[in-house]
Structure formats: C-alpha cells, structure tokens
Amino acid sequence: MDVARIDALRARPVAPGSHIIDGAPRPASDGAVMDVVSPIDGQVLTTVPRGTADDAAAAVAAARAAFHDGRWSDLPPAARKAVLLRWADLIEANALELAVLGVRDNGTEIAMAMKAEPMSAAAAIRFYAEAIDKLYGEIAPTGPGNLGLVHREPVGVVGAIVPWNFPLMIGAWKLGPALAAGNTVVLKPAETASLTLLRIAELALEAGMPPGVLNVVTGEGAVVGAAIAESMDVDVLVFTGSGATGRRLLEASARSNLKRVYLELGGKSPNVVFADAPDLDEAAKVSAYGIFRNSGQVCVAGSRLLVERSIHDAFVEKLAAVARQMKVGDPLDPATGAGAVNSERQLAQNLQFVEEARAAGRRIALGGGRILEETGGYYMAPTIVAGVAPDDRLAREEVFGPVLAVIPFDTEEEATALANATDYGLAAAVWTADLSRAHRMVRRIKAGIVHVNTYGGSDLTVPLGGVKQSGNGHDKSLHAFDKYLDLKTAWFKL
Ligand code: NAD
C-alpha cells in the first residue's frame, strides 16, 4: 500500500458534503448541518447536511419522476449495464481516495477498508451489471389455448437505509441489484459514515447515470430515515442495521403504504470449536480475526466462542496470543489489524458490557478497556471474557465491538443447543474434522450462513441474510434481485 499517498490524503481537508438530489448537490432545506467527527482523533472532519423530512420528500419525488418517465427503467438492460460498469471503473480508479476518506469517517483499518469498501463495492456493482442482460422471463407451461408470460419488472422507488460499519460494501449490495434492475433509489447513509456514499453518488453522475436515479440524503435516522420509511411513494425499503430500527421500519410500513421491508439485522454468531478441529492454531487465528477485525463492528462477527471443554483453556490462550499480536490503533497505518471504534457512544456501549461481566465475576482473559485515550480517538483493546453463562447479557445481546464471550461445552448436542440459544440467526461456524458432524451441525444451527473450518470470507456468489431476528431477504448473489423485481403475469387466450 502506498503509505506516502495515504498520508497525503489523510492531511487533505474535506469539503462540507451536500445531499445529492435529482443529480445536483443540495443543502438541507433549513440549511442545518451536522459535524462529522473522525473516530481516529475525535476531531471534526467536516460537515454534512442535517437532512429534513422535506429533503427526504424531495429525494423521493425526484426518484419517482425519474422512474416514471423511464429515463432509466426503459433503457435496454445492456445500456444500464454500460453505465454501471463505467461507475464501477470510476470507483476502482478512486479506490485509495475513497478508502482513506471512509476510514477518516468511520475508523475501519485501511487494509480491510481498501478491500471491503471501494473494491468490493465496485465488484458488487459489476456483478449485478453483468447479470442484468442475462435474466430472462418465463413462458408458463399452460394448455394450448392459452399463453402465460411471466415478466420481471422493476418495483419502482427503492428506499435504502444503511449502517456505518461498511457503508460502501453494504450500500453496493443494495444499489447494485436495485439499479441494475431499473429501479430508482433514495439512499440514507448512517450519521457517522456518509462521506464515501456521497462521493460515489457523484461518480455515478460522472459515469452517465441520469439525474434522479440515485439520490442520497444525509441526516438523522429518526428524521430522514423515518421520513423515507413513512413515505407513501417508496415501494420497497431495504435496510441494514439494528433490530430496534428494523422494528420501527416494519411499523412505518404498516402505517403507510405497506411497502415491502427487507431487513439485514444484527447477530450473536456462535463459533463452535471441537477438540478434533483439523488445525487448532489455524482455528485460533481465524477466530481471532473473525471477532476482532474492524474492532468487532462486523454483522457476522463470531462473537460467541463455544469451545469443547477438553481444549478450552489451551484454545482460549492460543486465541488470546493471536489477539495480543494484533496491532490496534491508527486505522490509516496499513499494519493495523483493528482500527477505531466508530463513535464515542459505541465505545461506551462496549465498555458497559465488559463492566457488567466483570461485576458478575466473569474472567477477563484479555483486554477489557479503552486504550490510546491520549489520541482523542475511540480505541478498545481486543477483549476476551471467559466463563460467560448462557443467560448473561453478553451471551445473548450483540455488542458490535471487540468483545468475545467464551462458553465451554461437553457434547455436540449441548453445542448445538447453545449455538441456537439466541434470538439471532445470522452466521455461525463449526470447526471439526468429522465430516458427518459438520453436516449435522450445518443442518441444525439456525443461521443464514454456517462456515465449516473457516470464518468469514464468503464472496458475492452466495447469499447473505439472517433468520429469526437477524432479518429477512438476502443481499449478494443473484437471489438479491428478488427484492427489486416484481413478477407480472400476462395471460393470453389464443
Ligand atoms: P442503526 O439501526 O442504529 O442504524 C442503521 C441505519 O438506520 C442508519 O442509517 C440510521 O441513521 C438509520 N436509522 C436509525 N434510526 C432510524 C429510524 N427511527 N428510522 C429510520 N432509520 C433509522 O444501526 P447501526 O448502529 O448504524 O448499525 C449497527 C447494526 O447494524 C448492528 O446491529 C449490526 O449487526 C447491524 N448490521 C447488520 C448487517 C447485516 O448484513 N445483517 C451488516 C452490518 C451491520
């Protein structure tokens, strides 16, 4: 990685952001702005508009008009594809600039941000762009007197509300299929990670995307997000974030126009290590990264470690040894393994979980506190809490921080029951050399993805989505199109 260039980009002032509505930069309707505080040092980096309900309505109106006149939806799929491929190329050409801007905004370590943010966003946009002129409709197997055609049509205006941990990647998982399918979009970034999404919206215009097709409105969830959710003119709402917000979005849909709502929510994902795992050193290394990268701010983080009792102490020590080697700190240093916690509020929340565990007499096997306070930034030591009881809040609730809860087990049955003893069902992993056991656990664990002898790293070709209170609907893979395309039947009497 080009360290000199990173340092030059880090020193660059960041101009105040604007909404992008109908292809043009716009301030908030009342001129209000909010500070963008960098978690690297706690300093104000720039401002973005503190959007109003009127701003959200203006963006929805622009998206509706753009959808209605067919400037995007009526283009041949190959023409939309060409624009999207140019957009992906521009994102890739500006990857380092985008990655550094994003890191200054949200604190993810640069090595991970580079891959997971601009590069994976470009890959997702390309994936859906390349697919869209290869999707066919259907001819139904009717009797000879009839003809049944099944068309796939864009649903219309998509509202997309995204979180701060991977704004470009998660944004692109929604924008890629939504836009390729011919919809128009109103996107609402998280309060603490707006800058890169505003920038790629500018790049979309540069790539030739017509005005009004992609609109971005910054501001507070309770104002801008709520206005999009309550809108009578948004057809589908796609969301990644917390369960509490997801619940509000479903209520908003019920109160307004019954728009479809697809939720990608949190997790308390079990990482189950059996004594017969093929390589315990590898399991410890991958498990450490599976919880501590991006300071645990990963929806699929393996935050509950279930370990067979016979290897419990040795395995926890192996994992702690890997975590001790991980460099935590300046996220713009390419050697950093875990960057900053996104906000002061998130850091306080993480520390509260640890304090409760400590007060309940649980063993803090590693870390447990804030570090590097002198920088003014928000950093937390990778933390391992052993002896966690299945009923502890730490075993049941998502921290969304670098805190690993460890629970021992004795049998496969017990491991399965513990793995499923949560309201969530996003991700899981099983480490074992016993193929039959691996297959049994894949079937029995209630989760959207079960890794076997690895953690993370699945690519765009497979769906990501939760079961239980981790959500509904899927991002990634061709299945993601289902959210953005309606089926329409044409029935002919011949
Ligand atoms: P959050 O729910 O607080 O915020 C997410 C988005 O919703 C933000 O854009 C926010 O402004 C908006 N929002 C907040 N209140 C709103 C309201 N009343 N109406 C409409 N919009 C509102 O979540 P967060 O703290 O930003 O993100 C962390 C959460 O996201 C974690 O629970 C994490 O597990 C989850 N997450 C899930 C996935 C996944 O794919 N399943 C991926 C990343 C993060």
Automatic annotation (TrEMBL):
Location of the active site: 264
Pfam families for this protein: Aldedh (PF00171)
Gene3D superfamilies the record matches: Aldehyde Dehydrogenase, Chain A, domain 1, Aldehyde Dehydrogenase, Chain A, domain 2
Keywords: Oxidoreductase
Domain Aldehyde dehydrogenase stretches: 32-489
PROSITE patterns linked to this entry: ALDEHYDE_DEHYDR_CYS, ALDEHYDE_DEHYDR_GLU
Protein family membership: Belongs to the aldehyde dehydrogenase family.
Protein name stated in the entry: Aldehyde dehydrogenase
